[in-house]
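Bumping my old thread because nobody answered last time. Still need a sequence for this structure:
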């Protein structure tokens, strides 16, 4: 039987036992404690242990065990906003970075709407990533004791989040204040009415407190924090270009973050990061919501529309080795229009540009196509800028990651705190009027009832980053980021792993030291596998393993997603490689049989006697061609469960909205492995 648990639950327990005995007689000066001929010791042992004498070796024990070569899976969120973000505070969030870390460690904190939120189990790492743009400024404007609050254009923000104003009726005021704050403040900086140094000092003070919170809660071996922030830029047509910047350590950091106000161009961010690196400050940036970029995140030209070259691509991949492929604002793996042979491509698609209801162009916006474009560039002799690993995150703006479909509290505080506001249940006429006045979403008749309709109903209870690291520490986890030994999940803590090699034995998954062998004889996810070092004509073997989240549904199927290029043309294929319930993959269709898992739309109960706790396979590509560049990544799917919108409807006693998916299949994705052809 394949021992997947051994492969994926990899904690090595090292127990050091020492037996000591107290002599009833004092040793003489010539009798050392490590003298194995000590008669006193022998007599004592004889009396206490039935005549058996135990010798004490003279060796010195060094209590520093070797590094955990098998590595452990750790889960965390690298995209979290608190009251220092201008939008989060405007939407009612008063939770601090300290509250965010308490939440990640398992404590309950208060949602802006007044109810408590708490994780089912603590996370292993967390990063507060407040917006660098106007960092702390809205919070300062609301504080009537601050100097900044005395500017006339921020009066509507005064006392915005005092308890008596934390209500549904405040939405129009909040949206208006949020919408006008940025342009009004910028115009006053330009006119000299507001001193930019005043805002810089607010940002520096907020940044110092964010660092302080991260340092206060970092506990190596138990819980890891990262000093981080969000660079929030976009194209002129509202194409999303946001990145989270994650610092490796905290002993040396910039005085304030680089923001859109320093450059709208992400290439400016990369230059700044390179400059920091030259001064001993290591960091990486993680693009997110490429799905909302309107085709701008993964272009084949630079900011000035010049074709990309080696210098540009190397700078990008040096600074952006990872991308975020799932979060509350949808999934960015692929799109049905781009992957029409992938039956699972239509997963939590948010079709809009970020913070709008303008449709986003799929081409240039999704990770799988970008991976293919990267192969095309490599075929032409240019370094691949899209050789990135995968992570997931929440992008919560309440300090608290909302990851559970059955207990979804969404993202933007008071704006989407219940089913009515986020469009999953009908709204009353009074609530509809408040929504209309706020102007963030529309009211639309669906199934004969009024619903809030905008982007919120397309949002997702997602996601998390998984890493394979030696220990739970900044150094170890950051190294995992750099080598791209990362995986993304849509929320559940599914453990997923991928290796590839040309020398693996067919029974490697059965071997006691299989993980060590997999590292030694091949490569892990995030790496290149070079055909040039192999025996001509050989086919690599991919090792994929998954373990379910005990608090989520059972696993249904394990897959390999392959992309490759032939004469400049893109190709992709999804292969099922392991099936639940003893199912066998059809060699013609590469699909598992239906395992019969069902969902009741009356109470969201699921079939509880089908599905797998673990899935694994040592798989060889039946269509392998060593002459073509290719990438492979693993994807695992759970049995179907209710989507959050269905849970909302059932609890409200109404039918689920007909134009939304009623169920989904939670999933996880590994970072790819890239096959580099010989020659």
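Sorry it took so long. Here it is:
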């Amino acid at each position: 039987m394949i021992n997947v648990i051994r492969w994926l639950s990899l904690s090595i327990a090292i127990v050091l036992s020492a037996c000591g005995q107290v002599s009833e007689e004092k040793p003489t000066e010539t009798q050392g404690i490590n003298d194995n001929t000590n008669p006193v010791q022998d007599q004592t042992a004889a009396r206490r242990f039935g005549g058996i004498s135990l010798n004490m070796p003279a060796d010195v024990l060094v209590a520093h065990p070797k590094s955990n070569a098998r590595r452990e899976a750790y889960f965390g969120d690298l995209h979290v906003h608190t009251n220092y973000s201008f939008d989060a505070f405007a939407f009612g969030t008063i939770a601090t970075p300290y509250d965010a870390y308490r939440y990640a460690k398992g404590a309950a904190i208060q949602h802006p709407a007044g109810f408590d939120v708490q994780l089912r189990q603590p996370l292993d790492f967390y990063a507060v990533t407040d917006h660098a743009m106007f960092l702390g400024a809205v919070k300062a404007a609301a504080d009537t004791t601050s100097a900044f609050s005395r500017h006339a254009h921020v009066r509507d923000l005064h006392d915005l989040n005092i308890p008596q104003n934390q209500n549904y009726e405040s939405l129009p005021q909040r949206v208006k204040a949020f919408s006008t704050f940025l342009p009004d403040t910028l115009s006053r900086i330009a006119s000299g009415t507001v001193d930019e140094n005043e805002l810089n000092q607010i940002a520096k003070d907020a940044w110092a407190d964010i660092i302080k919170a991260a340092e206060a809660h970092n506990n190596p071996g138990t819980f890891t924090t990262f000093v981080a922030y969000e660079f929030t830029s976009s194209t002129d047509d509202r194409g999303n270009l946001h990145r989270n910047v994650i610092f490796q350590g905290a002993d040396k950091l910039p005085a304030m973050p680089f923001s859109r106000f320093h450059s709208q161009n992400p290439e400016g961010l990369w230059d700044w990061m390179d400059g920091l690196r030259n001064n001993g400050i290591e960091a990486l940036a993680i693009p997110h919501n490429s799905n909302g970029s309107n085709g701008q995140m993964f272009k084949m030209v630079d900011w000035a529309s010049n074709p990309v070259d080696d210098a540009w691509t190397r700078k990008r991949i040096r600074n952006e080795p990872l991308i975020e492929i799932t979060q509350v604002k949808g999934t960015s793996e692929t799109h049905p229009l781009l992957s029409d042979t992938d039956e699972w491509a239509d997963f939590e698609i948010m079709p809009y540009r970020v913070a709008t209801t303008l449709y986003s162009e799929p081409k240039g916006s999704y990770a799988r196509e970008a991976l293919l474009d990267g192969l095309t560039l490599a075929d032409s002799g240019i370094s691949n800028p899209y050789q990135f690993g995968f992570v997931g995150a929440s992008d919560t703006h309440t300090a608290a990651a909302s990851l559970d479909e059955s207990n979804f509290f969404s993202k933007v505080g008071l704006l989407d705190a219940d089913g009515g506001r986020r469009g999953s249940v009908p709204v009353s006429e009074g609530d509809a009027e408040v929504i209309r006045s706020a102007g963030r979403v529309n009211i639309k008749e669906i199934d004969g009832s009024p619903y809030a309709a905008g982007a919120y109903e397309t949002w997702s209870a997602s996601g998390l980053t998984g890493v394979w690291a030696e220990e739970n520490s900044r150094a170890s986890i950051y190294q995992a980021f750099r080598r791209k030994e990362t995986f993304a999940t849509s929320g559940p803590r599914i453990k997923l792993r991928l290796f590839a090699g040309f020398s693996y034995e067919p029974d490697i998954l059965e071997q006691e030291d299989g993980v060590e062998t997999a590292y030694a004889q091949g490569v892990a996810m995030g790496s290149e596998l070079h055909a040039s070092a192999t025996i001509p004509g050989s086919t690599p073997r991919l090792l994929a393993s998954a373990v379910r989240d005990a608090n989520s549904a059972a696993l249904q199927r394990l897959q390999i997603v392959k992309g490759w290029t032939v004469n400049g043309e893109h190709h992709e294929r999804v292969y099922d490689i392991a099936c639940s319930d003893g199912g066998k993959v059809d060699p013609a269709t590469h699909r598992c049989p239906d395992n019969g898992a069902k969902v009741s739309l009356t109470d969201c109960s699921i079939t509880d006697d089908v599905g797998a706790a673990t899935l694994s396979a040592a798989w060889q590509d039946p269509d392998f061609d060593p002459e073509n560049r290719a990438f492979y990544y693993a994807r695992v799917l759970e049995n179907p469960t209710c989507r959050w919108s269905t849970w909302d409807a059932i609890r409200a006693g109404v039918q689920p909205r007909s134009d939304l998916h009623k169920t989904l299949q939670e999933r996880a994705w590994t970072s790819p492995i890239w096959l580099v052809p010989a020659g």
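The chain has two domains: 72-416, 494-676. Let me know if any region looks off to you.
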